[in-house]
## 1
Amino acid sequence: MLRLPTFTYHRPKTAAEAVAIASEHGKQAMYVAGGTDLYPNMKRRHQTPTQVISLQDVPGLHAVEVLPDGRTAIGAMVTLTELEKHPHLLQHYPGFAHAVREISTPLLRNMGTIGGNLLLDTRCSYYDQGHEWRESIDFCMKKDGAICWVAPGSPRCWAVQSSDTVPVVCAMEADVELVGNAGTRTQKAGDLYRDDGIQYLTKKPEELLTRLVLPAPGTWKASYLKLRRRDTFDFPILGVGVCLWFEGGIITKANIRLGGAGSYAIPASDSEKLLVGQKLTDELIAAAGAAAMKPARTMDNTDQDVYWRKKVAPVFVARALEACK
Amino acid sequence: MTEPKKVLATFQVNGEPHEVAFLPHKTLLEVLREEMNLTGTKHGCELGECGACTVQIDGKPILSCLMLAVDAVGKDVRTVEGLANGAELSQLQHAFADLGAAQCGYCTPGILMTADALLAENASPTRDEIKQCLAGNLCRCTGSLTIFEAVELAAARCRGEKAEPSKESIYGS
């Protein structure tokens, strides 16, 4: 039986108290929201905090709120099931709601939260294995080892960004609110991530993600398209998040992010440049899709064939753009 | 590190109070099976990938292998043992038995708990809604067809319709 290692469990009553506990214990502490990412990782001894800080009693993290300026703030502890059924999100943020619905299974969405999904650990076929399996290959550099088995000559870890919401919230230029020792700060969701399989977050370990703030509905459209082997359960092996801003039918700004194709949601910059100043015609969609092959840095560390995954990136980008028509 | 201390708490499981002492890092699955002897809930992958350990918390199906027992204190926990009313099986259990919607039966408690929550919310689910709802419960013996048919049969009976399984679904076509 796979059992959790022993740890001390905290249930702080305020965000400040949670941050104080996390600061006191440093690397030994981790936050837990729904537990659907952390607990499996702890059972496989990927993540081994001795102090687990639950956020369930922290007020202000459990609601979806429309702000006076039209933006929508989502508390980090709101479950994915609540989000996928939320009337305001379905009406005004269908691309985001679709991305949420694509996550895993209904049972896991009943437990998993938006905060947890935004901070999901990066994944790799050499890492997401049981302890004995990893021990048999002398581990890897992401946990307990020294080498990256995907690219043995590489000085870095290539574990894959595997959240379904990250590509679309980055494309939408949503904000995240973080509470730390110096108070609350807001930053673009896109700035939360970095291109490294191990240090994939830019925030300080004790900083607590409290809210995701989606931009006010307007003349923009967002979409998300996911590739995976099965229609359920699986993490994305490609997840295309698109957001296009229109003015009189002309695209004024375009963001395309490729999830599941690298350690962060990679911008498809060449495709974005082709789109700006143009009308979204079928020819333009095909051209913008084709330009997305290069940035998709697929490695042989998730499901399906590595070259096929790269080759279908243009198809998926084109389809995601089509959904913004 | 000092040895962790057990906590003493009272759970409400299937409408009955259970006072249990357990270590705070134990999952609800471990406490249900090992401390309360409610072994109807199965342990499968224990990583949230199979659905065998599904129970209902305040009416919602969740995975007991990924929930700490301490977090279930004060909540209404319902397991497969709570479906039947005494010796009388629930409509869902009847339908599964009538149709033989199980082979080895290991995934069945989890599927029953997920489907029961669906029927409580939606008296007339479509085949597609049933498929979506059960997408997190794996059955490795067989296809899911009889399972879907059993949920439909139970739904019809719960609506008061006189529904019997088709001969094809029992004897094959």
## 2
Amino acid sequence: MTFKFFPHTNEEEFSMLDKVGAKYREDLFADIPESIKFKNDYDLPWSMSEIEIRQFFDKLGKKNKQLKVFAGAGVYDHYTPAIIPSLIERSEFLTSYTPYQAEISQGTLHYIFEYQSMMAELTDMDVSNASIYDGTTATAEAVLMAVAAGKRCNKVLVSSTIDPKILKVVNTYAHFHGVNIEMIDAKDGVTDKEDLKNKISTGSVAGVVIQQPNYYGIVEDYSGYADTCHENKALLIMNSVAADLAVLKSPGQWGADIAVGDCQSLGIPMNFGGPYAGYMCCTEKLTRKMPGRIVGMTKDNRGQRAFVLTLQAREQHIRRQKATSNICSNESLMTLSATIYMSLLGKIGLYEAAELSYGGAHYLYEGLLRTGHFTKIFDAPFFNEFCVKYDGDVDELQQMFIKNGIMGGFKIDETTLMFAVTEKRTKDEIDMLINLVKEGVR
Amino acid sequence: MAKVIEGLYYSESHEFVRVEGNCCYIGITDYAQNALGNVVYVDLPDEDEEITAGEEFGAVESVKAASDLNSPISGTVIEVNNALENNPELINKDAFENWIIKVEMSDKSELENLMDAKTYEEFCIK
């Protein structure tokens, strides 16, 4: 089938095939075994006109329900200031090509540089890269970095309090790179430090991965972790939700060697699961082991300030077989979104948004406990997310919430719900949720 | 014409070996630094690391290339030229003077597999 918007005519196609010694287009797929080729007709509906398409999606869109989100588990319903979409949708940003040619890409390079500077400050680390795909792959890349830096060590310890979604990605990366992942036990919702000490002392550990706040929302006490790691020549990798670092002790202050996490919390809408952006920061010593790209500031031949991609040679151009990663790009548009968010809010704004989230979550926590239907599970400090045990049917409760326009918590198991609160949730909304619990499932 | 020094041993991947008793200094030759251009980074091994003849022990990155450092001999790294960490361009100033690692050799007979100055000079011309 040919369409007028496909640039090649049949004639041109045949002349190209002739050039490479093939007769038909199918010959180009000769290496694919017949047994796995799809030979039937595609079961696709008949084409629609523009107006039909609009009607179709309009109808589909109306099935969506706008819920008040009280769930997190890695993705949070933070406010996106209106200026962000209107700026990032400008074609100079939206359709720009990767900034290889510095002389025509100063705008893109400049905002990446600003992003890096802000992330380095937020995490208290020496260097930030230009971002990578998301927080989970950033964590997996950090694991590979630790193994590359650790030379002959290929074991990485991961705390059991890490988000299982992150663990899955880490395991996938590890499997195909011959990295041995071993779990550190958890006790009462927090990492078991003694178990870490025992396991790290067996040797050949290149890195240790922890999450702050951890999967259950608990802010763990990681005192001494960096020392334990460094005494055993292992790197400490800390995963954190970016926005939380506005109030929490930073990865740099904990002594982490690599700080990773997702930037979604920096005003990026939940977007049905993506796109987001992952941040990755490290100590100066590890700069050359960091995947992706870094934008540096320099002077051009007229002595003017200029920005340029730097330190990305290994991954992309030379010694590729020795590269620790094949990531050579960044998640630029979402990085821009996070950059505008941080510039708009500033230090104080980020702090205030985090404080509101903290306050709302603690207000909800106390309220839920007072209903008598929820009991506490962990006796540990939390930030804006917490786990509680319900005395009834969790599924029924969640369905009742949905009927009332609320996405009420993330189900951890048959009796446990994890609630998250952001600055977007008003006192009225929180009270409404608490009252629904009081009234019970009807 | 690149400088070659008498009395040193040379490998086909352009490392030199300067022997001092049971130990030796390993670096890259003047020919190698010239071919690489401005060196911007030297990836150094750690002290006490075991190295094996023919295997990689680090890397040199220049503005136009990055090249593995292959060990001409086997042994234990007893000293690393840390000055190169912040001043990698020292290699361009004087490649033979600015060695990269000092190694305690485990098998001196491996030196016999390497070239002398004259053979290396001819090797470079080829």
